[in-house]
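Researcher: Here's a chain I'd like modeled. Treat it as a single chain, no partners, no ligands.
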Amino acid sequence: MTIVNAPVLHPDLTPGQQRCLEALPLTGNHVVSGSPGSGKSLLAAHRAVHLALTGRPTLLLSRSNLLRQLLRDTLGGLAVLGAPVEAATVHSWIFRRFGRDAPRAEDGWFDWTALIHRAADTLGEDATPPHLVIDEGQDLSPGFYRMARLAAASVTVFADECQRLTETNSTLTEIVNALGRSTTRVEIVGNHRNTSQIASLAEHFRTGGPRPEIPFRSGSLPVVRHYSGTKDLADDIAGLAARHPRDRIGVIVNSLRTAADLMCLLERANLAREPQLYSSQASFGRYRDLDLGRPGVVIVHRASAKGLDFDTVVVADAEADSATDPTAATLRMAYYVMTTRARERLVLGWQGIRMPRHLEELDGLVESR
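Model: Modeled as a single isolated chain. Structure tokens:
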């Protein structure tokens, strides 16, 4: 649980974000949609604090453990004495609510039909069911929401269906239908993260939904860069860290082998700050618990990048997608997510003889090196 003495409910919110927050009733189910950079994660944390002021247990949930860490840190500056909010993963909440023997499906995820029956059988037994706030809610299946509707006092979901990277995901309409007809939908607009150049490149990969506003803030063109090998890639990352010592540099990889090799090379590069590597397979320690707020290099797998942001992003191994149809929705969503993580600078890196096909059609949007 995170408790602090000083209530700080609205730091750094834009007027539009604050209006969205204050328009959400403290009862009922709600779905808030918005494009990358619109401030969904920040609003989710504020929403959780508002709900906790009702005196009811409140959880801020995400599927990703790395996003949970970021949300936990955000809550640290928002929580109010006597109104604690906990950031947790969906997995941990399911085990807490239904026990460690919560039934699983064949894909390793939960058997939502069985859990819906369990929630229905115990309906009314919990005197204080929690408020649930879900960030990156498009990564959870409709079955989860049908269950949560029975197990929670209210459910507020922040989501963007253009970022559905998991196999068990939902569209906004599916989320609303699962939560019930009375569920309200709210949209937040604006992009407060990317430069216009980064947002324009991301627009090339967007798969659907309303066209988001291109931000006014300008910067340098994203770079498509060919690397002769992993050592060349590591040297470039080390150079970025040296030139921008106050930056948070996110290196997004598709290969765990690439992540391990990069970590070894960067640890030998005498960086000003020790590089960090996140591994979902680690149960604790330096590869599980990261400090996402400090400057320096962070290596993450693309499956864990959603919800995060960095001053500089390096997509390290675009060649991993060379055999994929460049029009495939899954590939386009992946690159939409990865490119929109960058605030100031973006590098799309590749190795090999021929540039990957999905990078060949970016003329005018990128600089090639």
